Amino acid sequence: MTEPPTLPARNEPELPLHTPSGASLSAAAFIALIAWLALAAQADITIGRLAVRGYGLLDALERMSSYLTNLTALLCALSFTCVALRPSTPLGRFFRAPTVVTATVVYMVFVGLAYNLLLRHLWTPSGYRSLVNESLHTVLPIFAALYWLLFVPRFHLTIRQSLLWLVYPLTYIAVTMLRGRLSDFYPYPFIDVLELGYERVLINETLLVCAFLGLMAMFLAINHRRPRSRDSSAVQNVRQDAGS
């Protein structure tokens, strides 16, 4: 059995998805291309670095999957590829839904902000690695945010939908802690239990979740201040006429 759908508020009608514009499809394809190229380059770097130490392909893929940046870039690549190439399929329509696009963009922007505020000072890559690093942590978040500003219309978000946005970061934290306990490898210094201990790591993780909630709130506030589309106004007028 499935739960009955949550009805939107009367002053925020839920609109059907319309045929996407050519500009939005082109922008989605461009973002997907950046994401795939950056991930491929990062895989090349990781495989090469670990091969020198005697590790194989599966080890490299496992190491890549430890980083939130790589997982989020993969999510971004998959979602924008579906939007660009399969917009009318069930999967394409799912990823085109404003709530889903917004969640994906929030994840990508959070990755960019976290890196640039907390990690950038820890290392200075050069050449090829610098290009890949900037693509993942700066270029991709910026273009994803621009796509959201330009092509995602105002939408209604239920409490249940907003809580679902937390599943991804909370699952990442839980899995990373479990993997770290088994392997003694923690991908980021602020969650390194071996160096900081569980109490400090728990505080850091709580602060990160609060920061993510703040970023969510910012996007939702921008969404709330956007003018209603003509379609939204038309649907609202029809409902008012039907009720009179």
From TrEMBL:
Record field: transmembrane: 25-47, 67-85, 97-115, 135-151, 163-182, 202-222
Signal peptide (residue range): none
Keywords assigned: Membrane, Transmembrane, Transmembrane helix
UniProt-listed InterPro entries: Pr6Pr-like
Protein name: FAR-17a/AIG1-like protein
Gene source species: Paraburkholderia humisilvae
